[in-house]
Amino acid sequence: MQLLGFSITTPGDAKRGAGDCMLGQKSDMTKHRYPGVYKAFDMWGKIGAALKLDRVGADFFSVIEQVRDVLGANPVVMMLPIGREDSFTGVVDLLTRKAWVWDDSNDPNNYEIQDVPADMVDLVEEWRERLIEGVIDQDDEAMERYLEEGEEPDVETLKRCIRRGTIARDFFPTLCGSSFKNKGVQLVLDAVVDYLPDPKIGRAHV
């Protein structure tokens, strides 16, 4: 699991301060004192990314549970993996309900945007509803329409809610992919731009 901010540090290096990027495997959360590092830069918004889903034993949903249990954090799942371990091929973006599928060339530009795989449709809808319910309280009007009229917020409204909640430290967006095989990495970088505060302005800029 990785937590993204503005600069780079390593697990256990709590001296670096707020806004850093914490790097490490999900199995290292306790060993490398993740809770202490997490709190050391808790004054800024963060983005989480599980970027080793091509490895043997990788389990994205287990990562999410560990983040909650070990860090006492509130991850908002933004995407789901397609396949696992050596059959990991891409991700489903919960905001757009679209699948990003890469080939085996390790070229991040060799992907196709497809419909959600048929065997994932129900799972995607379940987690998309969780995403909406986890962020919608950042916009009173959108929340009222959603709860009282059943009106689903559009993508731009959801992105605005996610940015507000991230900067306010109410939760952090959590993505996934494979950094070694260049699958999903660009989406993580896009999320940094979309949801983290401008480092020149700070968290007051929403």
Written account of the structure:
The chain is α/β, with parallel strands linked by helices and about 210 residues long. Helix content is about 35%, strand content about 20%. The protein has helices spanning about 35-40, 60-70, 120-135, 140-150, 155-165, 185-195; strands at about 1-5, 5-10, 20, 45-50, 75, 80, 90-95, 100, 110-115, 170-175. The strands form three sheets. It has a four-stranded mixed beta sheet with strand order 1-4-10-5, with helices on both faces. Strands 6-7-8-9 form a four-stranded antiparallel beta sheet, with no helix packed on it. The chain has a two-stranded parallel ribbon with strand order 2-3. Strand 8 and strand 9 (about 110-115) form a beta hairpin.
Tell me roughly what share of residues is in helical segments: 25-40%
* Poorly predicted spans: 3-31
Distinct helical segment count: 6
Shape: globular
SSE order and pairing:
Layout: E1 2-4, E2 7-9, E3 20-22, H1 34-40, E4 47-50, H2 60-71, E5 75-77, E6 79-82, E7 90-93, E8 98-102, E9 111-115, H3 121-135, H4 140-149, H5 155-167, E10 172-176, H6 185-195
Parallel strand pairs: 2-3, 4-10, 5-10
Antiparallel strand pairs: 1-4, 6-7, 7-8, 8-9
Outline of the structure:
The chain is of the alpha/beta class and 206 residues long. 33% of the residues lie in helices and 19% in strands. The chain is globular.
